[in-house]
Fold:
Amino acid sequence: MKEVVHEMFSEEQIEKRIAELAEQISRDYSGKKVRMVCILRGSVFFFTELAKRMTIPVTIDFMAASSYGDSTDSSGSLEVRKDLDDPLDDLDVLVIEDIIDTGTTLRKIKKMLMGRNAASLKVCTLLDKPARRETEVEVEYIGFTVPDEFIVGYGLDYAQRYRNLPYIGRLEFIEE
Ligand code: IMP
Ligand code: MG
Structure:
């Protein structure tokens, strides 16, 4: 099977959108104690670019969780491979995700973090794929909405590959 990546959003488009999100979030969270939570590994580039552009003080923490194996299908179960280093007590928590697909992963992450006494808990995702949603989950900030395609690049992988592409593309599988 041959794989071809077709660009959907250029690096410039992504950076412009991230700057807009950072401006909006900085405004919304002014005066608050923001803890940005990066969900590894997919959201790592989005997370750092967004954090750098925030104009209010923020603190950061990292968590590795996924409900995906090396395929394009969701297994549905959440595996936490690395938990946050610090407590969330009284902080305004902003979870940074790469893509919301079925919504399963995010719902489970939210449920887990909700029990940690944060002042608030909101979500910012680079991509949203609403056509595939299986469970209702609230997402406050969205970078781009994408169609029902398999997306790679800018942190997103297919079998751990393509994460380092500086743009976002859809992956096409061609029979040989
Ligand atoms: P969900 O639980 O179905 O919403 O899946 C969310 C996770 O699945 C994301 O954080 C990604 O790691 C992965 N995922 C879902 N759709 C895609 C895609 O199109 N490309 C790459 N990864 C994806
Ligand atoms: Mg993934």
Remarks:
- DSSP finds three helices and nine strands in the chain.
